[in-house]
Design a protein that fits this description.
It is a single chain. The protein is α+β, with helices and mostly antiparallel strands. It folds into two domains: 124 residues; 118 residues, endopeptidase fold (from Nostoc punctiforme). Helix content is 55%, strand content 11%. It is elongated and about 90 Å long. This is NLP/P60 protein. GO terms for molecular function: cysteine-type peptidase activity. Belongs to the peptidase C40 family. It comes from Stackebrandtia nassauensis (strain DSM 44728 / CIP 108903 / NRRL B-16338 / NBRC 102104 / LLR-40K-21).
């Protein structure tokens, strides 16, 4: 017997209430599902500085890997030269045997060929020929890897330079150095110096280096102010002597802050922050202005 369902009036108040409840619940669930499925729109997009930092880090790693590969290839070439030297020193009686061994395809074949010549050095020569062949193969493979990595380094260098240019343009156009809230006004020269310094964020510190990819503390500030059209001197002591000394209350973005008996210098960018090239093993970065005891402040004359 077929099941019998009681009739219901779809227009009854209770039915309408139930429908509204179900619809509302369904819409709420749908909204929640969509919110979970969609990417987090509130997440901030990476800034130019973040992108520059990422690319600079990738470039640093790629350059390190490239240096390692080149060192390995140099070692392999040395192994090949050692093997060749052994062959060059072989008695004339086995010269023909060595040539024949070059055509052999396995260590056993090489020993078989050489043993036919009755040389007492057959094992050593066979090993040398094998080492030479293996080194040649490794050199070929490493050279291919080096070519690929050099292309990667070139690509990352191009990306980094483009990001630096964009960052410098953005900082120059803003005229504020983008250093945070409550930043003081900044001159066009100061904006240019700050823009240059910001564009070097992520570059490695190397003592005595003057750019364009590595800096020490004073070469960074020198190059930044040079980009803004002013000469301030190469080292920290010259910059301390050549520039006008000011009070902290008069600091503007682009002015310099000195530490460690004028042994270290940083550039003030506003908002209580400086940009500087710290020390070996670190990169150009932001730091609080009071990161260490301060000797004084200067501004270009």
């Amino acid at each position: 017997m077929p099941a019998v369902y009681p009739e219901s009036n779809g227009d009854s108040p209770s039915s309408r209430k139930l429908i509204r409840s179900l619809v509302g619940t369904g819409l709420t669930a749908a909204v929640i599902a969509i919110a979970v499925a969609l990417p987090d729109q509130a997440a901030a997009k990476p800034s130019l500085e973040d992108k520059l930092k990422t690319v600079s880090s990738e470039l640093k790693d790629a350059k390190s890997d490239l240096a390692d590969l080149k060192e390995r290839r140099s070692d392999v070439k040395g192994e090949a030269r050692t093997a060749q030297a052994k062959l060059d020193e072989a008695p004339e009686a086995v010269t023909e045997a060595v040539a024949a061994v070059d055509d052999a395809t396995s260590p056993i074949d090489r020993l078989s060929v050489l043993s036919g010549y009755g040389s007492s050095q057959t094992a050593e020569l066979a090993e040398a020929v094998g080492d030479r062949a293996e080194a040649a193969e490794q050199t070929k493979r490493l050279s291919g890897d080096i070519d690929d990595l050099e292309d990667k380094v070139d690509d990352l260098t191009d990306k980094r330079d483009k990001l630096k240019n964009k960052l410098a343009e953005a900082a120059s156009e803003s005229g504020s150095g983008k250093s945070g809230d409550d930043s003081p006004s900044v001159s066009s020269d100061g904006a240019g110096a700050v823009a240059f310094a910001k564009a070097q964020l992520g570059d490695a510190y190397v003592f005595g280096s003057t750019g364009p990819d590595t800096w020490d503390c004073s070469s960074l500030t020198q190059a930044a102010w040079s980009a803004a059209g002013k000469s301030i001197g190469r080292d920290t002591y010259a910059q301390w002597d050549n520039m006008t000394h000011i009070d902290r209350a008069d600091l503007s973005p682009g002015d310099l802050v000195f530490y460690n008996s004028q042994g270290h210098v940083a550039m003030y960018v506003g908002g209580g922050k400086v940009i500087h090239a710290p020390q070996e093993g670190e990169t150009v970065k932001y730091s609080p202005i009071d990161m260490m005891p301060i000797d004084g402040y200067t501004t270009p004359s």
